[in-house]
Structure formats: structure tokens, C-alpha cells
Design a protein that fits this description.
Elements lengths: L6 H34 L6 H25 L5 H26 L4 H8 L5 H7 L1 H6 L6 H5 L3 H40 L7
Helix pairs in contact: 1-2, 1-8, 2-3, 3-8, 4-8
Length: 194
């Protein structure tokens, strides 16, 4: 089945959905890895990471479902546009929350300062005694400066979040255009054949 024919708008919609899923899966992979390393060292991950993972998991599920509904030509474009707007707001919050401390950090200077510490797990394990005295909760700002790799990966998460802001705004605009197009096609007078 070739799918619905909405021309360039339809192609743009699917392309943007694909790019959204790629960005979301990248963010999920990096944040899940960080959370896993922190939990393995018996520490509590920062709320920023847990929130980022939650938002991106919901968003990737939404993108997948709307792509399937589009291909079956049963996607309600107006509702999809409203949800794209809500996800745009959520991704903006993620980008701002994740990026606020990152904008001031130079990852290569951190790499020179931290020396042999290579992973979040090593950082968490080395900080184990201190973290046990403060309840095992890792401070997001301190954790960002732990290693060069952590800093660079979180900057990648931040960059993908910014890209998602653009992509969700674009898919919302395309959704409105597709809704208007399908609405106009439904209201068009039908010719009477003799």
C-alpha cells in the first residue's frame, strides 16, 4: 500500500516525523545510559535526567503512532497539531533545563581538569562516600563537570533538544496545512455525472 497522497506536505510531514524519532531515540539512549550508570553505583539520578527520559519516551511513542495513522490515512491532523504544540512546549522545557548550565561549560577544559575519570559510573563510585552523606542524590551541576565525555554527551542531548523544538514547530505548521487541505477537499462540491 503506497499510503496517502498529500504531495510535498505529506512528504514533509513524514520526513519530520522520521527526524524527530531519530533525535528522540538518541536522547533516550544517552540519558538512559547516564541513569543506568548512576543507579549501578547506588545513587539517585538528577530529576533533570529522569524528566528528559520521560518526555522523550512519550514523544517517540507519539511519533511512531502518528506515523502509522498517517500511512493508514486516519490521522486527525488538528488533534495531531495540538499534541505537537504540547510536545513543543515540553521539549522547550527540556532544552532550557538541560542547557542552562551547559551553555557556560567548556568540555575540553573539563577533560584537562578531571584527568583519568572516564565515565559517570567512575565519578559516582569515587564520590560514593560523599554522596552517601547527602542521601545519594547526585547534583546535576556537579555531575555535568565530572568528565569530558559526560559534558559532551549532555551537550549532544541539549543540541538534539533544540533540534526537536524546530522539528515539532515545523510538524505543527505542516499539520495545520494538511488539516486545512483535507477540510477543503471534504467541503468541495461534487460533480454530478449523468
Amino acid at each position: 500500500m503506497p499510503g496517502p497522497n498529500y504531495g510535498a506536505l505529506g512528504t514533509s510531514f513524514l520526513a519530520v516525523r522520521g527526524l524527530q524519532m531519530v533525535c528522540l531515540i538518541g536522547i533516550i539512549g544517552m540519558t538512559a545510559n547516564f541513569i543506568s550508570e548512576m543507579v549501578q553505583s547506588q545513587n539517585t539520578p538528577p530529576n533533570v535526567l529522569v524528566g528528559t527520559l520521560s518526555v522523550t519516551c512519550i514523544a517517540v511513542l507519539y511519533c511512531f503512532i502518528t506515523s502509522l495513522l498517517y500511512w493508514d490515512n486516519i490521522l486527525p491532523f488538528l488533534i495531531s497539531t495540538a499534541v505537537d504544540g504540547l510536545l513543543l512546549i515540553a521539549v522547550i522545557v527540556v532544552a532550557v533545563t538541560v542547557g542552562k548550565p551547559l551553555s557556560y561549560m567548556d568540555c575540553f577544559v573539563i577533560g584537562k581538569q578531571t584527568g583519568n575519570v572516564k565515565s559517570t559510573y567512575a565519578f559516582s563510585a569515587n564520590m560514593g562516600h560523599y554522596l552517601n552523606t547527602v542521601g545519594g542524590k547526585i547534583n546535576y551541576y556537579t555531575w555535568l563537570g565530572a568528565t569530558k565525555g559526560t559534558c559532551l554527551q549532555m551537550k549532544a542531548v541539549w543540541g538534539l533538544s533544540i533540534a526537536l523544538c524546530i522539528l515539532f514547530a515545523f510538524s505543527g505548521i505542516v499539520g495545520v496545512c494538511l488539516w486545512r487541505r483535507t477540510k477543503a477537499a471534504a467541503e468541495a462540491p461534487k460533480s454530478i455525472e449523468a
